[in-house]
Amino acid sequence: MSMIGLGLFPFLTYYLYVVVPLAPLVYLFIKWRAYRNEQATDPWLGAAVLLQYFWTLALQLALLGMTLILAGLIKGRNAEELNPGLGLCTSGLIVLLVAFFALKRVPRSPLRSQSWRVFNALNLLLCGLVALVALCATAILLYEGKISDLRLPLPAFFIFAAAWYWFLYLLIGKNKKNG
Hints:
The chain has 179 residues and is mainly α. 83% of the residues lie in helices and 0% in strands.
């Protein structure tokens, strides 16, 4: 097994340990805010939060897969990053589509917009952290003169920074239109 395969799965395991507890916390936060603001309850809020949570996980896996694919394409044919990247990207896109269409079937409610704002902020945080780490790794490798080692952190920076910008636009751009 390649070094990418050996390093990728422990990373995903730790990543999931960090991200998995966030779904119940988001649900409790939104329920608390609705109770505090004396808003009506939403019987579908739990289902919507879980579907948005899986949408977030799938998006992060797809972004990581795209990073590995791009790193493999930079290296050339038979790169060790291509197969794990294709697997992560494919599984992420499948779950993204399933969650997207399942969310379309959940009835709308005012609390759902709060849920999307929380998950957009969570994605902004996750993408920003990965982009920042990738930028630091890129800068360190540049200053050390290890240009050939940039094929993973540089694509990670560009992909996650673009995703970070997109979520920043979703949070700030829509608020400007509403305000």
